[in-house]
Amino acid sequence: MTAPRDTASATYLLPRCVASGEVQMDLDAALLRWAAAGPGRLVVRTYGWARPTLSLGRVEPWPEGWDLAAIRREGLDVARRPTGGDAVLHDEEATFAMAASIPGPWADAPRAFAERVADAVAAAYRTFDLAAERVPSSERGPTLPAGATPCFARTAPGEVRVGAFKLAGIASKFTRGGALSHASLPLTGRHRDVARYRLDATEAAALLAGHARSAGEWLGAPPARELIEARIVEAVAATFGVTLTPAPFAALGLADPSGGDGREG
User: Catalytic residue at 151?
Assistant: First the structure.
């Protein structure tokens, strides 16, 4: 069933799609615009990458500090996120995004929304018997320049960890009336290979080795991507107290990325 585009309140689950990094980031930005246009909107989606992708935070320097020859040689896609944070290598992972009206029926301020997203991610991981937790705001470390380290080289408040190791990278953006959070949930150690494409490869690799572990490394084998995505969707619905209605991209006024460019129509 396709909902009317002007629905003021709706909670949707969009189809999973695989597309280029640019298309995926355009779609996530479109989710935020849609959520901010109504008083009670919430949308969740999971997605995959057409090829291994390096995503950069909104203000992260580029191409300074990167080995462009290595990136070209290995055929990486490069995309700019609408959110902040530092670089992530997306491959062998589960990925999801959600956007919601703020404050909405869940009565969240922007930062509280992002923390609730992180709580949902941690809850999903705990269903695999991992001792996952959201990093509290009281553990805020030194402020570093954008791009100083890869995303997974340090753990920031509002992200998810097991022990001292970062388990999921979560980035957010807030606008008037809306919030967007999207997350990289590595299934293997592949995400640490981001160091190979930096000019400070040795230093970055050491930081990643000391701060990042994937779900698969904790569990002894990677969990099925489909399973962890399903657990994330369930945890988001429970954490926000909503029922997610499966809906096509057209419900948000978006072209289907499988047959178009994923931009707003």
Answer: yes
* Whole-number Cα distances in Å, 235 to 117, 144, 238: 9, 32, 5
Give phi and psi for 105, each to the nearest 5.
Answer: -60, -20
Domain count, the chain: 1
In a domain, 218, yes or no: yes
CB contact set of 35 (below 8 Å; sequence gap of 6+): 41, 42, 43, 99, 100, 101, 177, 178, 179, 180
Q: Which two tokens stand for residue 120?
A: 């949902």
Q: How far apart are CA 225 and CA 232, in angstroms?
A: 11
Structural domain contains residue 254: no
Residues 94, 132, 151, 179: which is the catalytic one? 151
The domain that holds 19 is classified in CATH as 3.30.930.10
Pairing state between β 40-49 and 93-101: antiparallel
Is 195 part of any domain?
yes
Instruction: Please give the model's pTM, rounded to 2 decimal places.
Output: 0.92
- Condensed to tens digits (0 to 9), the pLDDT of residues 4-44 reads 344 678 999 999 999 999 999 999 999 999 999 999 999 99
* Owning domain of residue 197: 9-244
What is the chain's length?
Answer: 265
Q: From CA 99, how far away is CA 175, in angstroms rounded?
A: 11
In a domain, 256, yes or no: no
